[in-house]
């Protein structure tokens, strides 16, 4: 009987919103004695803390590059990884004294289902999105509903087999499904990826039971097995405190300046505005947003992304000239990377205008703030539906390009800070989230323990087979 440690491969999709949570999850595995080899490309290596633990190692894989700039970037990247990383991982794994006994990989890397089969180990999907969002995605790609009125901008698509039977305008479905030729090579590429995920051995969600119980149970029923784990919110809880740290990048502005600015504000008097690590506002969206902030009269921190060599933007709205002067004294503008967790956890922040990326949703929930939703794509419309219609902890500000007048947006921003009903629900969910990841038998801690126990058993079977 092997007494070697359980050893798993963790393979994130190389985008901040996907690397950050999977890295935090691997730290939770390491804290339970599991050896983890993180598969990263050189440009993501900076996100991995140096010398975190002898149990957390990295394997550097070839840096992706894109010979055909016309190809869909996601498809080009995943294709590169499948072609150039697959053989390196197989050769490396076969040479290990303690071969990996499982692979945990992002839901954009469905092809690792085949890699796991070659390595004779189970593949677990890591979902950096919630269970509601992945349930929609699985249903969409498996059942592939057709839009009977593609010319009608108000045509809808429904998911009657999901809890709460959600209905969406077709334009809110992922562009990967809507804008690629049905049955064509790209459409089939994305569909195959999701079907591999559905066929995989298990799925680990960055969510918690009290938040998405009905969707976690739905997923188990649909997959016809119980290997579905809710282990989130995976956050950097250091030494048992909830002292936040700067995740995913170095802040563009000094943490001291931000804290000093926030310290001088009344409790709950500031709204934080951010659209994630990869969303660029169009010029018209930026115009309405900044005008709305100006008219709202409230204190705010605005974090906007600026294109860099890895994040190119077809169009990106710039902060209008003179805006910072017009809001001097009540507006703090960050053009680059903001220490989001640090900001959200400050007592002065009472509301969060967010694009509803799932990491931001969880960070907003853990901070107990009211959220204003402005989803832009991907799973964000589903996340907004969960927050607004099902949980009642948020209100809608805008949806993609569908934006209210600046004066109306300003009113919604101003009102957000005074929404006591939503705030009370948000604070209750914050307590649920902290309990779930707390060390006194929280639901996510129990799920993590059950997952590690099963991984240890899988290892034993693997090592005797
Ligand atoms: P988040 O999930 O909020 O958004 P994206 O970066 O857009 O990531 C998937 O990841 C989402 O479900 C998708 O909708 C897609 C994607 N951050 C920060 O610290 N400073 C900044 O200035 C900007 C961002 C952090 C933030 C969060 C992450 C963004 C899972 O949206 O705290 O942890 O970057 O992830």
Describe the structure in your own words.
Keywords: Glycosyltransferase, Transferase. Its EC number is 2.4.1.-. This is UGT1. By secondary structure, the chain is α/β, with parallel strands linked by helices. It folds into 2 domains: 7-235 and 437-463, Glycogen Phosphorylase B (Rossmann fold), CATH 3.40.50; 246-433, Glycogen Phosphorylase B (Rossmann fold), CATH 3.40.50.2000. It is 42% helix and 15% strand. It has helices at 16-30, 73-94, 112-118, 131-143, 175-178, 185-199, 209-223, 255-263, 283-296, 323-326, 340-344, 358-367, 380-391, 406-416, 420-437, 443-464; strands spanning 7-11, 35-40, 56-60, 102-106, 123-127, 156-158, 167-169, 202-205, 228-230, 270-274, 299-304, 331-335, 349-354, 370-373, 394-396. The strands form 3 sheets. Strands 3-2-1-4-5-8-9 form a 7-stranded parallel β-sheet, sandwiched between helices. A 6-stranded parallel β-sheet has the order 12-11-10-13-14-15, sandwiched between helices. Helix 4 crosses helix 6 and helix 9 (283-296) crosses helix 14 (406-416). The longest helix has 22 residues, at 73-94. The chain is globular, with a radius of gyration of 22 Å. The N and C termini lie close together (11 Å). The relative contact order is 0.12.
């Amino acid at each position: 009987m092997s007494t070697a440690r359980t050893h798993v491969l963790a393979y994130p999709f190389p985008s901040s919103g996907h690397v950050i949570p999977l890295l935090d999850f691997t730290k939770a595995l390491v804290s339970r004695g599991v050896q983890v080899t993180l598969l990263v490309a050189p440009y993501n290596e900076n996100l991995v803390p140096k010398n975190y633990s002898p149990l957390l190692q990295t394997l550097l894989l070839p840096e992706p590059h894109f010979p055909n700039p016309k190809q869909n970037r996601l498809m080009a990247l995943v294709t590169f990884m499948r072609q150039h990383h697959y053989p390196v991982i197989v050769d490396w794994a076969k040479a290990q004294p303690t071969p990996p006994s499982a692979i945990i990989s992002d839901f954009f890397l469905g092809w690792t289902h085949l890699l796991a089969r070659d390595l004779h180990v189970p593949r677990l999907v890591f979902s950096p999105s919630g269970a509601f969002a992945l349930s929609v995605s699985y249903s969409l790609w498996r059942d592939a509903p057709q839009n009977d009125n593609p010319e009608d901008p108000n045509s809808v698509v429904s998911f009657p087999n999901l809890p709460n039977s959600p209905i969406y305008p077709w334009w809110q479905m992922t562009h990967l499904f809507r804008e690629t030729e049905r049955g064509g090579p790209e459409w089939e590429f994305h569909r195959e990826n999701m079907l591999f995920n559905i066929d995989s051995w298990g799925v680990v969600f960055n969510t918690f039971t009290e938040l998405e119980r009905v969707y976690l149970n739905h997923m188990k029923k649909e997959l016809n097995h119980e290997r579905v784990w809710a282990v989130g919110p995976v956050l950097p809880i250091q030494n048992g405190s909830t002292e936040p740290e700067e995740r995913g990048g170095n802040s563009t502005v000094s943490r001291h300046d931000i804290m000093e600015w926030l310290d001088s504000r009344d409790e709950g008097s500031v709204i934080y505005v951010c659209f994630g690590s990869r969303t660029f506002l169009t010029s018209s969206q930026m115009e309405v947003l900044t005008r709305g902030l100006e008219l709202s009269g409230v204190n705010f921190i605005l974090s906007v992304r600026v294109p860099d060599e890895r994040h190119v933007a077809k169009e990106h709205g710039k902060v209008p000239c003179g805006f910072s002067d017009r809001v001097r004294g009540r507006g703090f503008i960050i053009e680059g990377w903001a220490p989001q967790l640090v900001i959200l956890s400050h007592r002065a922040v009472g509301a969060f205008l967010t694009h509803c990326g799932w990491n931001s949703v969880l960070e907003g929930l853990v901070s107990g703030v009211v959220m204003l939703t402005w989803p832009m794509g991907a799973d964000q419309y589903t996340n907004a539906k969960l927050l607004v219609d099902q949980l009642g902890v948020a209100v809608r500000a805008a949806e993609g390009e569908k934006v209210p007048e600046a004066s109306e947006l300003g009113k919604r921003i101003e009102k957000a800070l005074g929404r006591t009903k939503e705030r009370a629900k948000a604070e209750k969910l914050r307590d649920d989230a902290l309990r779930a990841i707390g060390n006194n038998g929280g639901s996510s801690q129990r799920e993590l323990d059950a997952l590690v126990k099963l991984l240890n058993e899988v290892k034993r079977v693997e090592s005797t087979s």
